[in-house]
Design brief:
The chain is of the alpha+beta class. It contains 11 helices and 15 strands. The chain has helices at 11-24, 47-50, 53-58, 96-109, 154-160, 193-205, 218-232, 235-238, 284-291, 298-305, 319-325, and strands at residues 2-5, 29-33, 38-41, 62-65, 73-75, 79-87, 114-117, 121-124, 127-137, 141-149, 168-170, 212-213, 245-253, 256-265, 268-276. The strands form 3 sheets. The protein has an 8-stranded mixed β-sheet with strand order 7-8-9-10-6-2-1-12, with helices on both faces. Strands 11-13-14-15 form a 4-stranded antiparallel β-sheet, covered by helices on one side. Strands 4-3-5 form a 3-stranded mixed β-sheet, sandwiched between helices. It is elongated. The chain starts with a strand and ends with a helix.
Length: 327
């Protein structure tokens, strides 16, 4: 087994690295990595329904879609991520117990009573510190990854994932929020994150005679960077891949109440209705027609609005107020 202790903290790069190793390596692999503040959404989720858009924007938190299913999770530098990528050995492809056992073993050595609970979580005293997900590639190779909250900013976690549950109507998988805790709060003797990380890595290196450390080659790094740029860092993957959804949102402005009804498919606005008690000079249906067919993406919408005298349609309502109600 190759053991990769990678120190890149760009979430777009790290998610690309997982896919690259999954599809291009033949050996089994174990990976440890960390991300700067980011929200990682599940493969089948509606991204906008999982995040607090304003909080994410104000705090410069990146949003990335991963290959595996399951719910959205928050990462920061106080969170360690682990990944197992292995070739299929039996008909049982999904096996959360197998891949979380090494983590439980390390924590029990530190006298922390960590346990597997529910469908895919690790808990301490009933509070979640690790969520896990899996992806199967061509029915022959398995990717299992999980989070390890060690000293994460839990206020950022709740803020970034605190989406409005009434705003969206869709068939996407919804995240289930749990009480969470940091591992560091349960240690008998305090240790730093890097020391804990090394304990986990050393445990895996010593788990089997065939384990050996691996560093990405220049060829690996170039291919991962390309995958990062062309897929994981794009709006089309992170937001446009969301299942179809309907969204209803309203806001009180200086020009009156403004309410938006959106139907979005493949990230593109298919239908939009604008309601409220605002005043208008030109027919609001003209603005609705101009917004139809535009990606549900702030940058694209602002670009379209540059050619529009918005005050003709929404008197005393600013572009920023219109944008705010569309997300």
């Amino acid at each position: 087994m190759l053991c990769i202790n990678d120190h890149h903290t760009d979430p777009y790069f790290n998610l690309a690295a997982e896919e690259y190793v999954l599809k291009n390596f033949e050996e089994n692999c174990f990976m440890l990595w960390r991300n700067e503040p980011s929200v990682i959404v599940g493969r089948h989720q509606n991204t906008l329904a999982e995040i607090n858009v304003d909080y994410v924007k104000q705090n410069d938190i990146k949003v990335v879609r991963r290959l595996s299913g399951g719910g959205a999770v928050f990462h920061d530098l106080g969170n360690i991520n682990f990944t197992f990528i292995e070739n299929k050995e039996s008909d049982k492809l999904i096996d959360f117990h197998k891949y979380t056992k090494p983590i439980i073993d390390v924590l029990q050595q530190l006298e922390v009573d960590a346990r597997f609970e529910g469908r895919n979580d690790l808990v301490i005293d009933g509070k979640k510190f690790s969520g896990n997900a899996e992806h199967v590639y061509r029915n022959s190779r398995i990717l299992h990854h999980g989070t390890l909250l060690f000293s994460a900013e839990l206020s950022d976690l709740s803020g970034a994932l605190n989406a409005n549950p009434t705003k969206f109507n869709d068939k996407a998988i919804k995240s289930v929020r749990s009480r969470v805790t940091n591992i560091s709060s349960h240690l008998k003797e305090p240790i730093g994150l890097e020391q804990f990380r090394e304990l986990v890595f050393d445990h895996m290196m010593n788990s089997s005679p065939d384990c050996r450390a691996y560093q990405y080659s220049d060829k690996d790094l170039s291919a991962i960077q390309q995958l990062r740029d062309e897929k994981y860092a794009t709006w089309e993957w992170d937001f446009g891949q969301s299942p179809g959804y309907n969204m209803i949102n309203g806001v009180r402005t200086g020009g009156g109440h403004l309410e938006i009804h959106l139907d979005v498919q493949n990230g593109i606005i298919q239908h939009i209705r604008i309601f409220g008690d605002f005043f208008n000079i030109r027919e609001i249906s003209e603005l609705e027609t101009m917004l139809t067919g535009v990606p549900h993406h702030e940058e694209n919408i602002r670009k379209m609005l540059k050619s529009v005298n918005l005050s003709d349609y929404l008197v005393n309502i600013s572009e920023n107020e219109l944008i705010s109600v569309m997300f």
